[in-house]
Design goal:
- This protein is α+β, with helices and mostly antiparallel strands.
- The chain has a single domain, classed as Alpha-Beta Barrel (mRNA Triphosphatase Cet1, Chain A), CATH 3.20.100.
- The protein is 23% helix and 41% strand.
- It has 6 helices and 13 strands.
- It has helices at 24-32, 58-64, 118-126, 132-139, 202-209, 221-233; strands at 4-7, 12-19, 39-53, 69-78, 83-85, 89-96, 99-106, 110-112, 142-155, 162-173, 185-186, 191-198, 216-217.
- Strands 2-7-6-4-3-9-10-12 form an 8-stranded antiparallel β-barrel, surrounded by 5 helices. Strands 5-8 form a two-stranded antiparallel ribbon.
């Protein structure tokens, strides 16, 4: 039986930088040489996501149109992409401009292979302990996109600022039935660096970001994935 993981309501800043002009080694070197003394924490790992949206891509177009308040619903798991998914988590990401927070709920294990259907995914959500109102909300949505990427984690010496670096971002279409995931598309954005910190430290954040030769970007992996897949098809 699944249990809630977190029900966070505190918003924090999430500033993203899409990087194309540097390779992953150079980006990591710039982070480690930063005056804030960032050091690597945790271990590098693969992150996998299944994103949900309405049939008319309501979430996608809301983001593209610049809605300040947005919501993203996804299933996330770590490690292997294919096969038995042991610890999937349903996440509801809330965004207000550059501020973000999320709620997370464990899901029962499911299998991702050529037999996986939208019905199988929805069944896992139905059997979870997520609030019924959330389950009802997700039932009107469809799995639209799967992505996968490598992530590294860094923390400043004072423990205030956290950086993640995502690379090797791949996208797959998600169909109602018969998903073999053989077709994959690479994100042209290259590398995504994200700077995360609590709201009370926003005045200090400028001194962190100005040491990087990167431009702030309104990057969304979901938006990039939909754009990539639709361009590939059409």
């Amino acid at each position: 039986m699944s249990v809630p993981v977190t029900t966070a309501k505190t918003f924090r800043y999430e500033r993203k930088f899409a990087i194309q002009e540097y390779d992953i080694r150079h980006v990591e070197s710039l982070v480690k040489l930063h005056p804030a003394h960032f050091s690597e924490i945790y271990h590098e790992r693969y992150i996998n996501n299944i994103y949900f949206d309405s049939r008319d891509l309501e979430n996608y177009f809301g983001n593209v149109d610049g809605d300040d308040t947005r919501r993203k619903i996804r299933i996330r798991w770590y490690g292997d992409f294919y096969g038995n998914i042991e610890k999937p988590v349903l996440e509801i990401k809330h965004k207000r401009g550059l501020l973000g927070t999320k709620e997370s709920f464990e899901l029962p294990a499911f299998t991702l292979d050529e037999t996986t259907s939208a019905v199988c995914i929805q069944d896992s959500i139905k059997r979870s302990l997520a609030p019924q109102i959330l389950k009802n909300d997700v039932q009107r949505l469809e799995p639209t996109l799967v992505n996968r990427y490598k992530r590294k984690y860094f923390l400043s010496l004072d423990g205030i600022f956290r950086i993640t670096i995502d690379s090797g971002i791949l996208f797959h279409r998600m169909y109602a039935y018969h998903n073999n995931f053989l077709e994959q598309y690479r994100d042209s954005s290259g590398i995504i660096l994200e700077l995360k910190y609590d709201q009370e430290h926003d005045e200090c954040a400028h001194s962190i970001s100005t040491h990087f030769p990167f431009r702030l970007s309104r990057n969304s992996k979901y938006i990039a994935g939909i754009d990539c897949l639709y361009n590939a098809v059409y």
